[in-house]
From TrEMBL:
It comes from Neiella litorisoli. Residues 1-29 form the 4Fe-4S ferredoxin-type domain. Coiled coil: none annotated. Transmembrane segments: none annotated. It holds the Pfam family Fer4. InterPro entries: 4Fe4S_Fe-S-bd, 4Fe4S_Fe_S_CS. Keywords: Iron, Iron-sulfur, Metal-binding. GO terms for molecular function: iron-sulfur cluster binding; metal ion binding. The keyword Iron applies. The keyword Iron-sulfur applies. It comes from the Bacteria. This is 4Fe-4S binding protein.
Length: 109
């Protein structure tokens, strides 16, 4: 019945601060949820507090590995638009790192 934190987590610490069971732990590999402590906020809140405060989609998943904040749920962007935006960004970053400015390019004369 416990949740898990994925590698999408940015380590903002927000979930750790709001967890009523103190189930969020941090370690060398980032944040994790101690399954023996997590009760998904049953009896405390209507919604899991970790997911309610988490600013990152897909960072927290349930036992079936379904994101509590699925793609598009926080940004309001349809999933296909997220994929397009990320692809374009990755392409620009790839072009920038694969083709550094030539000598003198970008400098004022």
């Amino acid at each position: 019945m416990a949740f898990s934190i994925t590698n999408a987590c940015i380590g903002c610490n927000a979930c750790k601060l709001v967890c009523p069971q103190k189930a969020i732990v941090s370690g060398a590999n980032g944040y994790a949820i101690a399954s023996h402590r997590c009760n998904e906020c049953v009896g405390h809140h209507a919604d899991p507090q970790c997911a309610s405060i988490c600013p990152i989609e897909t960072a927290i998943v349930n036992a079936e590995h379904r994101a509590l904040n699925p793609p598009g749920s926080l940004t309001g962007l349809p999933t296909e638009r997220n994929v397009i935006a990320i692809s374009l960004l990755e392409q620009r970053l790839s072009n920038h790192t694969n083709h550094p400015p030539s000598h003198g390019e970008g400098h004022a004369r």
